[in-house]
Design a protein that fits this description.
Elements (H helix, E strand, L loop, with lengths): L5 H4 L3 E4 L1 H5 L7 E4 L1 H8 L4 H18 L9 E5 L8 H12 L20 E2 L8 E5 L5 E6 L10 H9 L5 H20 L7 E4 L1
Parallel strand pairs: 3-4
Antiparallel strand pairs: 1-2, 3-5, 5-6, 6-7
Helix pairs in contact: 4-5, 4-7, 6-7
């Protein structure tokens, strides 16, 4: 897979998954997620996908500090419905990293490692997503603000030209490069105080 170099430079998310350890899928259950992994899941790279990645990373950092976040031990609640806007896309990213699912996940072994009923929608929260540790009940709400990295004024008109069949290949290539440049800048702002905001 050929992809933009910045995929490899984006901050990684490292999780510890007891189920992966038990079944020998990863030594000590340590799993590293890269932005490239998320792109493979989503099938594309955009500010929404990058924002979902950063919201998850930053929320887990807040909840776990220097400890490794435990995959399968985090409940996730979304303010909006699963079918609203890009909520479903964001939920796929969050679930991929945390292991949380609605009712389609792993059913568990001997009453442990159940990944179902850890994801909820239409939650009465003010942030976009609420992450809660099941072991301590500590929680945090997060929201992503893509406008911190504004899109070039020419970006959306170029997209409309492509979608309407009016763009040639050089214009398509130029658009793709500009689109990913914005995503790169979003990921480089991972610790900007306004790109992911918090509430409790």
């Amino acid at each position: 897979m050929n992809y933009p170099v910045f995929f490899d430079h984006a901050p990684k998310i490292i999780m510890q998954d007891p189920l992966a350890a038990l079944l020998g899928a990863a030594t000590n259950g340590i799993i590293e997620y890269s932005y490239g992994d998320i792109v493979k899941l989503a099938g594309h790279s955009c500010p929404t996908v990058a924002g979902a990645y950063l919201m998850t990373r930053n929320a887990l950092n807040k909840l776990y500090g220097k400890a490794l976040p435990e995959r399968g031990n985090v409940k996730v609640e979304f303010r909006d419905s699963a079918l609203s806007g890009v909520t479903g896309v964001i939920a796929n990213v969050v679930g991929f990293i945390t292991g949380a699912t609605v009712d389609t996940g792993f059913k568990g072994l001997g009453g442990q490692y159940d990944r179902r009923n850890l994801m909820f929608f239409d939650a009465p929260i003010t942030g976009e997503i609420r992450f809660e540790r099941l072991d301590t009940a500590a929680s945090i709400e997060v929201a992503f603000h893509a406008q911190v990295v504004p899109a070039p004024a020419t970006l959306m008109p170029a997209l409309h030209n492509i979608l309407s069949g009016q763009a040639d290949q050089p214009q398509k290539d130029s658009f793709a490069q500009a689109w990913q440049e914005r995503v790169r800048q979003v990921l480089e702002h991972d610790d900007h105080p306004e790109i992911v905001t918090y509430s409790s």
